[in-house]
Design a protein that fits this description.
By secondary structure, the protein is an alpha/beta fold. It is about 25% helix and about 25% strand. The protein has helices at about 45-50, 130-135, 135-150, 165-180, 190-200, 225-230, 255-260, 275-285, 300-310; strands at about 1-5, 20, 30-40, 60-65, 70, 75-80, 85, 100, 115, 120-125, 160, 180-185, 205, 215-220, 235-240, 265, 290-295, 315-320. The structure holds NADP nicotinamide-adenine-dinucleotide phosphate (NAP). NADP nicotinamide-adenine-dinucleotide phosphate binds near residues 44, 48 and 207.
């Protein structure tokens, strides 16, 4: 079957190991099933994998992709929840120390077919296209959990979202706006700021700009480049939710400000099956849709990876099968 996969790892030149070609069809173990993929979306996670972060050499070749929407073995339209926990794990799946995402230990979604645990399938509502549904399981689910589960955002909260053009950030902008929050974003370019306003941001600032006032919650996925600004932008008692560190994971911690302003620094990772179910319902009921930068056939996936590597995109990049 056709697939997009990593055949080599390179920290500095991640696209060197990116291949599009033939891979064997999946053979599902007991309790697993096979989904015929209609659409899969690209995440920064796929670039990390190609750099060798979370993907050791001995697991290559590895089909990339965490997210998919497609048809199950009975022809039902489904969305794949990418967090695979131990079959005996009964609590929040994201707290399972042995959890894994598709494309880390098991072959990923950027292929004609993918094997997944049966319990990781959710019905795709007819209101969402396969392309839209394929955006939800990683970037959108992460944004949902950051805002509502971990960040405690409520109607009227002021939320700052760093790096507005990204997949998680565009999702957070749309979701926070739909939830009645006041949404402020930062982005490095005016076209991304303009796009963020169209998606629902009330104000869009240059990265690092002084804000008119301090905010209740900051959503941080950029890391070193924006961390100090995030800490300084919070009200006393505010909450910084972090789920990613694209530009580096070891900024100065700003400890004096953290304790003196009594800030909460909260980690967040992916989301549960229940949260994905609620997110899907929210999209349908409130007519919320993912911002898709471009849709490409699987065979042209390299163009999408290049756009993500150079930052020349806004929102989600989707591959169709
Ligand atoms: N923990 C989890 O479960 C989880 C889930 C999803 C994602 N993540 C992580 O979160 C991060 C974002 O993921 P994503 O898929 O949304 O990635 P993405 O779509 O590639 O977005 C990255 C964004 O970071 C911003 N950025 C990059 N370099 C920057 C710099 N030097 N200065 C300021 N901003 C910069 C850019 O914003 P602008 O160009 O708009 O300024 C860019 O749009 C990744 O590191 C990813 O691994 C973690």
């Amino acid at each position: 079957m056709r697939a997009v996969f990593a055949s080599a790892l390179d920290r500095d030149d991640p696209l060197r190991g990116l291949e599009i070609g033939e891979r064997p069809e999946p053979e599902p173990p007991a309790g697993w099933t096979v989904v015929s993929v209609k659409a899969a979306s690209l995440n920064h996670h796929d670039l990390w994998s190609l750099r060798g972060v979370g993907l050791p050499e001995d697991r290559l070749p590895m089909i990339l992709g965490c997210d998919a929407a497609g048809l199950d073995e009975d022809g039902n339209e489904v969305v794949v929840h990418s967090v695979i926990s131990d079959p005996d794990w009964r609590a929040d799946e994201t707290f399972d120390p042995r959890r894994t995402l598709l494309s880390e230990r098991h072959q990923g979604t950027m292929a004609e077919k993918v094997a997944v645990p049966r319990r990781n399938l959710l019905p795709k509502p007819p209101e969402l296209s396969f392309e839209e549904a394929a955006c939800l399981p990683t970037a959108w689910l992460t944004a949902y959990r950051m805002l509502f589960t971990r960040g405690g955002v409520v109607p009227g909260s002021t939320v700052l979202i760093q790096g507005a053009g990204g997949g998680v950030a565009t999702a957070a902008t749309v979701l926070a706006s739909a939830a009645g929050a006041r949404v402020w974003v930062t982005a490095r370019s005016e076209d991304k700021r303009e796009q963020a306003r169209k998606l629902g941001a009330d104000e869009a600032f240059e990265s690092g700009a002084r804000l008119p006032e301090r905010v209740d919650v900051v959503l941080e996925t950029v890391g070193e480049a924006t961390w100090a600004h995030s800490v300084r932008s919070l009200k006393p008692g505010g909450t910084l939710v972090v789920s990613g560190a694209t530009t580096g994971g070891a900024p100065p911690a700003e400890l004096n400000r953290v304790f003196f302003q009594q800030l909460s620094v909260v980690g967040s990772t992916m989301g549960t099956r229940d949260e994905l179910e609620r997110l899907i319902r929210l999209c349908v009921e409130k007519d919320v849709r993912p911002a898709i930068d471009r849709t490409l056939p699987l065979d042209q996936a390299r163009e999408g990876f290049e756009a993500m590597l150079t930052g020349k995109f806004i929102g989600k990049i989707v591959f169709t099968v």
